[in-house]
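[Q] Does anyone have a clean structure-token version of this?
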Amino acid sequence: MENRSSESERLLTPAEVAVLFRVDPKTVTRWAQAGKLSSIRTLGGHRRFRESEVKALLAGETAPQYDQTSGGHRRTVARGRA
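[A] Here you go.
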């Protein structure tokens, strides 16, 4: 039996968030480090992300895409293969 109140909201792992955004889990961790996505730390030091925040980001915005070679400026990323 699971309580879904705001205090016990479902938390997602970096891997679960990565699947939703179709990026590498390390990218999700970088977004958290850059403050683009807030995270919670478990007692063991692992990151967890609030499902509601992740879904809101998915619904309202595109995934933050940053080109590290150009100093973090936003860029457009194609998702298909050539």
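[Q] Thanks! Anything notable?
[A] Residues 11-61 form a domain with the Multidrug-efflux Transporter Regulator; Chain: A; Domain 2 fold (CATH 1.10.1660.10).
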